[in-house]
Each structure stands twice: as C-alpha cells, then as structure tokens.
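Attaching the record inline, Q. Sequence:
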Amino acid sequence: MTRRAVGITAAVVAAALVLAALGLVLGQRARAAEIRQAGQVAAADALAATDTSPFLQRLTAVRTAGFESVAAVRDARRMVVHRIREARQAEAERQARAAERAAEAESSPDSGGSADTSAPPRSSGGLLIGDSVSLGAESCLADLGYHVDSEVGRQFTVGLDMLRVHAADGLPDTVVLHLGTNGPFDSSGFSSAMALTEGVERVVWVTIALPPASRYSFVDSLNAMIRSEARAYDNVRIADFATAASQHPEWLAGDGIHIAGPGCPGFAQVVDDAVTRP
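Structure, as predicted:
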C-alpha cells in the first residue's frame, strides 16, 4: 500500500472516530434534555395537582371575618358610648326637673295635703310592673327614666311573680305597680306585693281605668281597696289614673281601656307626679 493510501485510510478512521464521539455527545445532550423536560412536566403535574385555591379562599374568608369582627367591635363600642351619653343626658334632665320642682315647692303655699311639702321632690324613674295599658305608655315612661316590665294580658299573680324576680335581683328606690286591668285581686295580694317591696323608698300603686261594662264591675271596689290599703304605708303613693282618664277620655283608645296618642304622656305624667311627690 502506498503512503498516500495509508494516509487516506488514517484520515477516514480519524473522521469516523470524530463522528462517533460527536454522536455520543449529541446523544448525551439529547438524553439530558429529555430528563429535564420530564422533570419539568412532572413539576407541572405536581403543581397542577396541588390546588391552592381552597387555601386562598380560606385565607380570604379568615381575613374577611377578621375585618368584620373589628367592625362589629367598633360598632358595639360606639353603641355603648351612645347609651352612656343618653343615660347621662337623661340623668341631667331628671336632676333639672327635680330642681325645678324644688323651686316651685319653695315658692308655692302649703297645699294642705298629707305629704311633707317642705321636703324637696324626689327624682323621676324606677321600675314599673304592669299590663298592656302601661305598655302603651312605655316610650313616654322611658323618657322619664322608668324601666317598664309590662305584658299584654298580664294577671295580678303573674305580675306578682315578676315583682318577685326583680326583688331577687334587687329593687330600685322606686317601684310602680299597675296591675288589675285583666282581673281583680284582694287585700292579701296587695300585702304580698308590699312584702316583696319591703325597704323600697317609694311604692306607687296606679288605679285602674276601665269602661262601664258589666264584666268590669269589679273596678270600683278594686280601686277603693287599693286606696284603702295604701293608707297603712308611709312609703306608698297613689297615681290616680282612673280619675285622670275619666277627665281626659281622649287619653284612651276606642275600647276605653288602652292608651291612645295623648294618653302616653298623660299616663306617664300621672305616674311621675306620684313618684316625685315629697
């Protein structure tokens, strides 16, 4: 073989080796690319399988609830502040009315009544236990500082039970009782109520106003009993709504029992006059 042939053969072998090496490198790179692509696909599949939307929804819900809770707390605080301001204003108004009554009492001549007119008027407000009639004047009574515990159709025995409940929690200085519209009670019931209010500074009994009908024939004897029993107690006053209502028929609705428009302030004034009377 000539040298030229040998050289050509060597060149061909070298080229073949180079091509083989190049093919090997390209194959490794292609394999590596396939591996990377497979990893990316797997990562994408895993990401797709992990749905973060429920977590985000829960996170959003928690944040929203948190904001709503903060808003609720702020609203509650505003309401408390508002009620405190209202209570302070109502107390200031009651004190002002008491001062006015004291000034009037000092400047007016002795009325000749059984009350001690030399003493200053008492403050308005207290607990009122009653039935649907006093319930009709609740807003006007509340303006004067009274807490009204009244209920439609309430019988005296139920009212006595409610008085017992309030007495267990502690009664205020003034208790007003307006019971008997839905049926009479006797002197023993009066005495039971007074036993529950023992130690209360002022107890006011409100007389009952009912229309002249046979089923209400008990009302005159009931009011007479209330007035008679009240004389035995120094701390008892009568709020004579029965007389006032007869003088102001416009205070009552068409049934002659329940409060109509002007009856709201009228009833409240009758009660408050008895409460604040010295």
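The CA atoms of residues 34 and 142 lie 85 Å apart. The longest helix spans residues 53-107.

More tomorrow.
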